[in-house]
Amino acid sequence: MDLLAKAAELIAVPSTADRPEQLARALDLVLEFVGPGFTVERFASRGKPSALVRTPGPRPVFRILLNAHLDVVPAGVYEARRDGDRLYGRGAQDMKVAALVMADVFRELAETLPYPLGLQLVTDEEVGGYDGTAHQLAAGVSADFVVIGEQSGLRVVTESKGLCQVRLHATGVSAHAAYPWLGDNALVTLAGAVQALLRRYPVPAAEKWATTVNVARIETANTAYNQVPADATAWLDIRFPPEDTDFNGRTPHEIVAYLRSVTGVAAEVDSLGPPHHADPDGADVARLREAARCAGFTGELLRKHGAADARFYYARGVDTVIFGPGGDGQHGPDEYADLTTVEPYRKALASFLTAVAAGPAVRRASGAG
After folding, report:
1. DSSP assignments along 78-144, one per residue
2. Looking only at Cα atoms, what is the longest distance across the chain?
3. Residue 338: which H helix or E strand, with range?
4. Which string of DSSP letters, residue by residue, matches 222-234?
5. Closest to 236 (Cα-Cα) out of 331, 167, 305
6. If DSSP codes are grouped into helix, strand and coil, which group holds residue 320?
7. What is the model's pLDDT at position 366?
């Protein structure tokens, strides 16, 4: 109940990217929940605060690092509402409840484990993670194995898609709308370019491990009905699996050239992150799967379509998994955390950390879920 009360308080914090004071407030709430007796290293980059919590002494290479983000995407209302076994509210599933569970397990076990355990709290995952997890890694934070508490229903995510956020730019010639043949409508050109890309990557009718393109925004500087637009820009969010070599392993310059060849218009890469992969047969993955099974869940492996901060660790050769409680509706008005999974999630995390201490003897996991 203490955790749920704190979750309601944390969900009420509108910790969006454009509210730096609220990001700091969310971070302080979780640090207060962890309590005294630990070393807290604070970081900041471009207005985004983060923290690394550990036992006192020089910063080690952490045997296990628990990673949680406290920022959320914007919502109309920021408040928690419980309905039976569901806790509704922005960030309930993604991922404020999981962050508090991680903080709770950390404060209980960090001082008792025979290896260094860290708790990494960041506030910019929803806008790329470059000023939180990536910033801390650049500052020397390191680990052998990382668990990110994003929602997974106690399944173990060993693979997730890469992320490429781009803008397509079309130019034309302005003219009076009554005489469109005297101009060149940039919006029409852009619409054709977007359709060409969607023909290459059609929206799947159902879940599919394939590259997807989301058209997030189309804009023009034109403000008049009776004028042919001379410029237009489309914002695209592209998610790609490791198998798509048109994106995976490519530089921004190469992706720009590829998109121009498909669309016929100029492109600009705003953000690029690789897919993430962890060894599904690794000993720590096996321990975590066994811990999930002991908590009453299948412990199956899962691939996620969304990108996460795991990609920053993957780029440094650190095995990282996503492992979190259940829920649904992330980024939507009906987002909720499944409270029936919270205590099993807590038990599984604690059991996993204890099993790591027991050494290499572990039953190997077999097969992907």
Report:
1. ---EEETTEEESTTIIIIIHHHHHHHHHHHHHTTTSSS-EEEEEES-GGGTSTTTHHHHHHTT--EE
2. 78
3. strand 336-338
4. ---TTB--SEEEE
5. 167
6. strand
7. 35
What is the rounded distance in angstroms from the CA atom of residue 22 to the CA atom of residue 10? 10
**Using CA atoms, how far apart are residues 292 and 137, in angstroms rounded to an integer?**
28
What does DSSP assign to residue 18?
T
Q: How much is the pLDDT for 360?
A: 61
Which tens digit of pLDDT belongs to each residue from 313-346? 998 999 999 999 999 999 999 999 999 999 999 9
Bridge partners of 66, per DSSP, are: 119, 147
Query: Model's pTM, two decimal places?
Result: 0.85
Q: What is the rounded average pLDDT of the residues 118-142?
A: 96
Contact yes or no for 62/53 (Cβ under 8 A): no
Instruction: Give the amino acid at 172.
Output: G
Of the chain, the end-to-end C-alpha distance in Å amounts to 33
Please state the length of the chain: 369
| pLDDT for position 308 | 84
For 209, other C-beta atoms within 10 Å of its C-beta total 12
Please give the pLDDT value at position 1: 60
pLDDT, tens digit, 9 for 90 and up, residues 28-63: 999 999 999 999 999 999 999 999 999 999 999 999
Same domain? 196 vs 138: no
Q: SS3 for 210?
A: coil
Query: What's the domain count of the chain?
Result: 2
Closest CA to 147 of 341, 332, 284, 302: 284
Q: What percent of the chain has pLDDT over 90?
A: 93
Write down the pLDDT at residue 128.
Answer: 87
Residue 129 in any domain: the answer is: yes
* CATH number of the domain within which 45 lies: 3.40.630.10
Residues 280 and 258 in one domain: no
Last residue of a domain, one of 273, 295, 315: 273
Taking residues 148-171, what's their average pLDDT? 96
User: Hey, which residues does 138 pair with through a beta bridge?
Assistant: none
In sequence order, what are the residues at sequence separation of 6 or more whose Cβ sits closer than 8 angstroms to the Cβ of residue 306?
150, 160, 161, 239
* Contact in structure between 4 and 86 (CB atoms under 8 Å): no
- Tell me how far apart the alpha carbons of residues 145 and 331 are, in angstroms, rounded to a whole number: 28
